[in-house]
Amino acid sequence: MNLPVTPFDFQACLAACAQGDRRALQALYTHEGARLLGVTRRIARDDATAEDIVHDAFIRIWTRAASFDPARGSARGWIYSITRHLALNHIRDVRCEVAFDESDIDAIGAVFPGADDEAWSGSSRIYRCLEQLQPSPQRCILHAYVDGCSHIEIASLLDAPLGTVKAWIKRSLKALRECMG
Amino acid sequence: MKADAADQDQDALEALAGEYVLGTLPADQRAALAARMAHDPRLQRAVDAWEERLLALTRVAQPSTPSPRLWGRIERSLDERAGWFAKPSVAWWQRLRLWQGVSAVGIAASLVLTFLLLVSPAPSPRYLVVLVAPTDQAPGWVVQASDGRALELIPLGQDAVPDGMALQFWTKGSQWPAPVSLGLIKPGEQYRVPASSMPPLEPDQLFELTLEKAGGSPTGRPTGPVKFIGRAVKVI
What we know:
Chain A has helices at about 10-20, 20-45, 45-65, 75-95, 100-110, 120, 125-130, 135-145, 150-160, 160-180. Chain A is mainly α.
């Protein structure tokens, strides 16, 4: 008989970090480190830089754990926001334009919209709402969020005019907000 | 009509918050928005909502096992931080680098001193200290003290202190065993220490401002980083 898997309690983890319990931070690292590194690697596109960002993210999580406010959102979301924004700040500061590796594009194509992929067949509303967008606007949202691409990078990837890409993103965000509430 | 304008305003706010979370804002706009969020609760709520809406997209990225060294690096950084705030292994007056920095003070002191003597019609103070930043020797404060009168700390600029932190003012004579606190000061504000609350000044007496937790150093000794430092120069 399988024991039920206890979900990781992100909020209790942050509360323990705020109390100075370093084992809580280590537990977070063990549980979520690989996923957080996966997210930063897609944005930073460089293994060493991605590890630097995850390092900085854990220091920031540790020092700011006391400021986490559950009324503003989930603890897991707070942790991912800190990490993603560190990665985004980094690439917006250092990267003007990037020559995209073809494998990055393939990776996106492989993930969306693979119905057999657990991430897509799951109950997340964002995926159901994304599916209602046209293919190009969908790719804009994914390239931006997952790969940290700027408007210009997306325009060159999709071979579309910059103004069109900006309009697609604006309209897609509006549609997603209406779809998800 | 008014309701339409409010709707448009909300739409613009949502669009901005959405692009911030999506990551498509250029660096300057990202920084401006992050700064605005701190005092704009509506924007903050819009950003928070977008973070939650899009969070599940982080699952698109394949997990990637960190190198075995990464956790060790994080732990070392935490140790360093803990040491920085709690227990510096070497007291500041024994740090070589600091004294190397302080040696440049003489030049800055003489320049500011000349300036002050030229512009000030008041009687010259007997002692003058220019406090400079140890990193770049930029003058930040001037201390002046007259015979038997209050000691004055005068800001030369406006510098900010992070939330929850404070600047603490210290002095140490050459024969004293340890620095003595002269109190907490506010950035950019003049501060006076009554002559009665400190021993007579001596040449080469050291003054400094350190960054401490709000409320001041818990140990009674400087524990945080030195922001400004300088030595007393006797004025004839």
